[in-house]
Amino acid sequence: MVVHRSCPGYGDEPFAALVADYPGAEAYPAGDFRIEWGPVFHRGRLDGSARVLVIGQDPATHEAISRRVLVGEAGQRVQGLLARLGITHSYVMLNVYLYSVFGQSAGYRHVKDPAIVAYRHRWFDAVLLDSGVTAVIALGTLAKRAFGVWEDSSPERSGRAEGIHLAAIRHPTYAEGSARASGQPLEDTTAAQLADWSGHLPALAAAVLPEVTPNPKPYGESWAEQDLVGIPEQDLPPGAPAWWRAVDAWAVRDGADAQEKRSTIRVTVPKGARSWPTL
Ligand code: URA
User: Fold this and answer.
1) Which residue, 4, 50, 60, 247, has fewest beta-carbon neighbours within 10 Å?
2) Range of 136's domain?
3) Number of domains in the chain
4) Would 233 be classed as within a structural domain?
């Protein structure tokens, strides 16, 4: 018998209350957020065993389907970074936004909206106050800003933040976004991103108690196969197919125009996971 592990969900407080009264369109305007795909809350441990908090930006296609944050390529790059630190399971991940941002400028516009901030702070409090987290990895500018807003918002929070190492690193898909925006070659932006991640590794490794032997060696100039690590089974909801956790991309926005594209995520079983008999 195969025994499967899965994410136990949000049964315990304060998480039960957090998923019962999440904000909707009154806080997240539908012109700027894809609220039609629902909120995506977290990935990882909510039982107090997390040693690292990763703050991402907003859920994308793989996250909309799997209902956990940082599951697609960005998540697998982060999983690889955690592996370098010797962290295999003792982490928790949240995003700045519950819903997928529609256009990057919307992301910048809403990072300090009071209703969005108030709810995000309840999550940050839940995983940071009175917890064993010793390091926060903020992915990109918005995540860094969100942590800073939390830190500055009360003496209790700033006191807690003093005991936490903050690694504000480039977002895991910075290289792609930056190459698109600037016209620089992807190889150059990738090398810059990996140099940034490598530069943060020594201080991060010193701030985190590893679960297994760490390997904080610097990255090369391009992604190597072992730099991406699949998502652990216990991070996804019960019954999630194994290919949701694999490195192959399986979900893309699809459509002839902007309306259709916003309405459609095409999910495809990757070739390597097609185990059915073919005629
Ligand atoms: N997926 C997420 O959940 N967050 C990110 O920041 C990127 C992709």
Assistant:
1) 4
2) 27-219+239-246
3) 1
4) no
Q: Is the pTM of this model over 0.85?
A: yes
Residue 269 lies in a domain: no
- Ligand 1 atom with the smallest distance to the CA of 58 is 4
Tokens 């991940």 belong to residue: 93
Distance CA 117, CA 106 (A): 15
DSSP state of 210: -
**4 in a domain, yes or no?**
no
| Rama region for 23: left / alpha / beta (φ>0; ψ in -120 to 50; rest) | beta
42's CB contacts (< 8 A; 6+ apart) are: 68, 69, 92, 93, 94, 123
Provide the CATH number for the domain around residue 169: 3.40.470
121 phi and psi angles, rounded to 5 deg: -65, -30
Of 5, 81, 75, 82, which is closest to residue 40 (Cα–Cα)? Answer: 75
pLDDT in tens, 10-33: 999 999 999 999 999 999 999 999
The pair of three-digit structure tokens given for residue 130, joined into one six-digit string: 């009175």
Measure 111 CA to ligand 1 centroid, in angstroms. 15
Round to whole Å and give the CA distance between 53 and 69: 13
Ligand 1 atom nearest residue 69's Cα: 3
* 139 in contact with ligand 1, CB cutoff 6 A: yes
